[in-house]
Write a structure and sequence with these properties.
52 residues; alpha+beta; two-stranded antiparallel sheet; 2 helices; globular
Amino acid sequence: MLCGICVKRCPVPEKAVNFRNGSENPPVYDYKKCIRCFCCQEMCPEKAIHVK
């Protein structure tokens, strides 16, 4: 869907999830920046993000 809600909701100032490869591609995670708040997963309207 590429809506970008996960990117907008990421509370990390430098964004742990972002459209690094352009907005026509799925967002990419930088797990070194991720604080494990799970906002991206909770806010995804398509339930496309799954925590392992």
